[in-house]
Amino acid sequence: MSNLAYSLPSAGACLGLSLRLGAHDGVIAEARSDTLAGFAARGTAFAERVFGAFPFSRELPGWLYALRPGPSPAATPAARGGEARPLALQRLPSQEHYARAVAATAAQVADPKQPLRKAVLARALDLRTDRALDPFAVAERLGSDPHVTAYCLPLPGTGPAARWLVGATPELLLRKTGAEIRSHPLAGSARRSEDAAEDGRARAALVGSEKDNVEHRVVVEYIHDILAPHCAQLSVPERPQLDRTASMWHLGTCIRGTLRDADTPCLALLAALHPTPAVAGAPLPEALRAIAAAEPFERDFYAGTLGWTDAANDGEWHVTLRCAMIEGRAARLFAGAGIVAASVPEDEVAETRAKFIAMRRALGIAETL
After folding, report:
1. Which of 33, 102, 155, 198 is deepest in the core (most CB within 10 A)?
2. Predicted TM-score of the model (pTM)
3. CATH code assigned at 130
4. What is the pLDDT of residues 283-310, one digit of tens each?
């Protein structure tokens, strides 16, 4: 499972990597906690490679683990007494309430007197199981899709069970290698089909959808405007490409640039970018107000960012999508959709339902539950 990029064998011991982290293995030291802006403001001259995750909210702290050179101890697979079976599933909010929120937000975007151009509204599913979930087993199933980066990261907490951030993201937020940078945002989605003809129609409809192209353009323009002042050269394709996962088609744009100063801190660029309109909306203050009004839950690390940076000031950070927060016998799944003036509530409900597919399958949740 070469694409399971970020993983620890134990939430408590934090001994080492069970699978690869980029091209390097090493020994895990202590975890550090701060906001993304806090880390960026203090400078990024780390003496070792660090990796971890930051939540959606810029006001909440994330976690960075130090990775120091040395052989990683072999990970011991968790003892498994059979797979956990789903017992109950609660929707937050209901599909009906979500549809009403979409309609209200679309009307706000359509109002020329309102500044809001786009808002990403999410739904959550709360799962209860008959025994503790195995986060590694879930990540392993997610990692079978070659078009995603699967991850399994322990998060320090005070509860009786360890908290894990588990998911499979298709979206690269930022990669920095010397002076070269890359971002590959996704916005605009369609559910794939096992029927080849139907899958082709879904693909063609997405490419030709004015609504989805508008949604995507908002994200690309935002990232361009953030990165351009730092770059001697910045390349943005005129049209998006089609990206895919096992269950979804996405509009994607590969943005590449060369920094004016190769020493520009990786985390400073990350802090400037996060969260993008692909997961929040635009303008950000208005989008955050729309999200707070529509979502009856905290996003936590959903739609945050996960990755690494090192002593050379290089790094790679992904958007934490297609994810769940797992804690003992409970898991909270997340999925969102970008809302613009042309959004149709029933279509956005269907899009979020489709985005749950990968995690539902990994957790063994039947479509009927």
Report:
1. 102
2. 0.90
3. 3.60.120.10
4. 999 999 999 999 999 999 999 999 999 8
